[in-house]
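chain below, 252 aa
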Amino acid sequence: MDLTVIIAVAFGVLWIGLSKAGFGGGLGMLTTPLCVLAFGMMGKSPSFAIGMVLPLLCSGDAFSLYHYWKKWKIENLYYLLPGVIIGVFIGARLVGKFSPSELNICIGIIAIAFVLFQFLKEKIFKYESNFKPGHTTGFPFGILAGITSTFAHGAGPVVSMFLIPQKMLKEIYIGTTVLIFTFINWIKMPFFIMNGIITKESLLTSLYFFPLVPAGVWFGVWLNKKIPEKSFINLIYLFVFITGLYLIVSNI
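prediction:
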């Protein structure tokens, strides 16, 4: 593996642990586009990068669950889960239908949409009245979350749009998000294996980079004490936007 690829992937995997440490929720969105770019330099398909990242996300979820244990509104999981299962099933089947270029464009679009949502979400929900979640609203949100998570591990905006209007306390909101994504990621696992997205090679590559997940957690804890969060997050969002834009432009 080329040194440039190793550095780029390592940089991406660090953000999994960083986001799981509670420093700037959503920063893990940088991981997939960056890994797609890096492994693309080796001639690997985008699905290889998607499959490689999933076990690392699952391991990162364990750190978050420990920190936010039972600090969640579990009913949201029940509302979203049926749709998530269907969405993951649809997404896993669709991934194989796209060419590498088309999949790169999809991942790029999701990355850019994620950044735009982060900057617009306060305006979007500024005048929103209290939202009463239920199975009726949770089912379509769950389907969309399952599909976007399968394509780029990028269901963050979808889940946020379902949770933010509920106006939870910050800790409960984060804990609920952690719980939902833990289930989404583990639901994806058998589908990814059955559809050849996770392979023996991608799994061994995941193990190779695994130590960077707890290292990212430690790094996140350190950054919380040393660096103003808002400025740092805006810089990472810029990286996500540029990476997503490059994936689109370079594959048109």
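The chain has one domain: 3-249. The chain has a mean pLDDT of 85.
thats it, cya
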